[in-house]
Amino acid sequence: MNERNQSLDGLMDYIEKGVSPFHTVQRAAEDFAMAGYEELSLCDNWQLNRGGCYYVKAYDSSLFAFRINKGFARLQSFRIAAAHTDWPCMRIKSAPDLSQGTYAKLNVETYGGPILNTWLDRPLSAAGRVVLRGESCFSPVTRLVDFKRPICTIPNLAIHMNHDINKGIELNKQKDMAPLIGQALAGELNQKDYFIRILAEEMGVSPEDILFFELSVYNCDKPDILGGKGEFLSAPRLDNLTSVKACVDGLLAGTERRGGIDMAVLFDHEEIGSRTKQGAGSVLLPMIMEKICRSFGYTDEDCLNSRLKSFFLSVDVAHGIHPSQPDKSDVTNLVYLNGGVAIKAESNQKYATDGEAIAVVRSLCDKYGIPSQLFANRSDVGSGSTLGSIASSFAVMRTADIGIPLLAMHSARELMGVGDEAALTGLLKAYWNEQ
């Protein structure tokens, strides 16, 4: 199997199983555990060894995996690459039961910035974390759940009832985005905890033992390779499972580096600003870097100096030039699907890249024959930011923003070039292998 097909097969597995941030972390943790990485507890004192490989989960939806190279010594730096585990969707509210006649619906809220109309008429499921009653108040039990089948949909309104629908319709997030989950007699719908009972039956637990849940509504569509010559991959959750999978594969590929520490980070909550305890806008990354250094007896200043010498890759997606709307892209920085890794720069620092960081990334691409392209936003069209600027303001190190180009970003289905995942993975392998 060639490298391109191997990258695509691995990515499609992550798309199938990464149906919530919790499941994405679980899937990545399985890969690291299978490769011999030792799991650590966030709250323990760490006794680490040179040559050791470790991973630690943070609140079940973020993950840090790192390799301490055998020659690691005082004041040596970290090489870090980070992606995010979340994606725009709907999240089920804590009291979700809605009804209309014999129809049962779910009360949901939008998470991040999804393109709402792309979620209509799709087969939808739900997955995430459920917290159950434990032996004591401060020891609840958490379990992951995935219905693994379509359980709901958001039906469109027929054109016969809205003749102007093709002129563009604004959807109301409260009224129009409530998924239809079932049908029953009105008396049954009025029973307390209609959805909780469905959830409890799925999990094989008592409804009374469910204390809370954090469930994402996700698109059940399977990935499809398309194009006259199979040039494209259409799939849900490409933002940002493409980067998650590349970070995992890049780190697991190993290294010939003698010193330093190599780290892959999977942050939650990028789509809502990162400013949470397990997001890039917290002190979690510098705190973990300090715990690693302190396990070798290094001082506070040693930890600080090591961090200041480090390098950070923010790995997210970029906007490819649209075939029908090319005027939305920059006039000279043209980024195409299958053109390779996009290196992103923005003077207002929505992307954290600076000149020295770009030089490092471009040098790696040139040396290892990795296709790359430079991305910039059109000057009069705003764009989203990434976790790079946020994380680097806390950890303070050289940072570059990179990723693969997409079309239809934040749609229920996005589109990428089939060759770009292998290019991104190749860059991350080179990043952690170069002396």
TrEMBL record:
GO terms for molecular function: aminopeptidase activity; metallopeptidase activity; zinc ion binding. The keyword Protease applies. SUPFAM superfamilies: Aminopeptidase/glucanase lid domain, Zn-dependent exopeptidases. Keywords: Aminopeptidase, Hydrolase, Metal-binding, Metalloprotease, Protease, Zinc. This is M18 family aminopeptidase. Its cofactor is Zn(2+). Its EC number is 3.4.11.-. GO terms for biological process: proteolysis. Belongs to the peptidase M18 family. InterPro entries: Peptidase_M18, Peptidase_M18_dom2. It is an enzyme of class 3 (hydrolase). It comes from Fusibacillus kribbianus. One of its GO terms (cellular component) is cytoplasm. Coiled coil: none annotated.
